[in-house]
Design a protein that fits this description.
The chain is built from eight helices and no strands. It is mainly α.
Length: 191
């Protein structure tokens, strides 16, 4: 089990280490302590950055499907988040919008570490097979007001329709089947 240390504790430890090596000598900048020894620094490690790097390494393993045996368990945990069934798509969402209560603190911190990156998506791209994996809910690329309704989200989740591909497949087979599965009575919303 991985425990996430409180942020204040990490900052206190970092401050104590810097004070030990630097002790307020102003002729050397504190930032110089973090330089590698080869560049005439002390080679100190910024603890928060190192923790974020470990979390991003976990995110990389989750995104590239290759790696250790714990990968399947991690994907199972990601699928449980918000009962949405997302795996890799979880990294496209903002953690503030999604209910992360079913996720362990470690994987919550992995999703938060991913937010360090500024992800910009090209809207003019030619759609490919990845389009069917696009998440329906909490997605900045799909801005449909009706999809923000909690009751509609719950109905579509119960029907197993959480990705654009699920919606397109339902549309090709029969909208009536989707309406029955999701218990949505409004024909206007279904169409």
């Amino acid at each position: 089990m991985t425990l996430t240390p409180p942020k204040g504790l990490i900052e206190d430890i970092q401050r104590t280490i810097v004070d030990f090596f630097w002790s307020g000598r102003h002729w050397v900048r504190a930032a110089a302590l973090y330089l590698p020894v080869a560049e005439e620094g002390q080679g100190l490690i910024h603890i928060q950055s190192k923790i974020a790097a470990f979390r991003l390494r976990t995110a990389q393993s989750l995104l590239y499907d290759s790696g250790p045996s714990w990968l399947e368990m991690a994907k199972l945990l990601l699928r449980r988040v918000g009962r949405l069934g997302y795996q890799k798509q979880q990294f496209l969402l903002t953690p503030e919008d999604v209910d992360l209560s079913g996720l362990t603190p470690f994987y919550t911190s992995v999703l938060q570490a991913w937010q360090i990156f500024k992800i910009s998506r090209v809207i003019n791209e030619i759609p490919g097979m990845w389009l069917f994996e696009e998440p329906l809910f909490f997605n900045k690329l799909i801005r449909i007001r009706s999809l923000q309704s909690a009751s509609l989200q719950a109905s579509l989740r119960e029907a197993g329709c959480t990705k654009l591909g699920h919606l397109m497949k339902s549309k090709m087979t029969s909208l009536e089947i989707l309406r029955r599965k999701s218990n949505i009575t409004s024909i206007r919303i279904i169409n």
